[in-house]
């Protein structure tokens, strides 16, 4: 059997941790593409469109991450009301 759902302060701590992790992932998408600023597009072996391809995929992941954070926040809000706790 599974563990009982978190209650009170434990629930708030767990939700806070998840919000922090997902927010950090959102921040990392900019850091990922920032590294391409230093790579000249005419460097041997570097295709001109690599940065665009990476930015496209990172942008897509950023949207998923943003949606995930919205869902976590919605869950936290609705669950804290039903648990009668304020996080």
From TrEMBL:
<dbReference type="InterPro" id="IPR006501">
    <property type="entry name" value="Pectinesterase_inhib_dom"/>
</dbReference>
<dbReference type="GO" id="GO:0004857">
    <property type="term" value="F:enzyme inhibitor activity"/>
</dbReference>
<dbReference type="InterPro" id="IPR035513">
    <property type="entry name" value="Invertase/methylesterase_inhib"/>
</dbReference>
<protein>
    <recommendedName>
        <fullName>Pectinesterase inhibitor domain-containing protein</fullName>
    </recommendedName>
</protein>
<dbReference type="Pfam" id="PF04043">
    <property type="entry name" value="PMEI"/>
</dbReference>
<feature type="domain" description="Pectinesterase inhibitor">
    <location>
        <begin position="14"/>
        <end position="71"/>
    </location>
</feature>
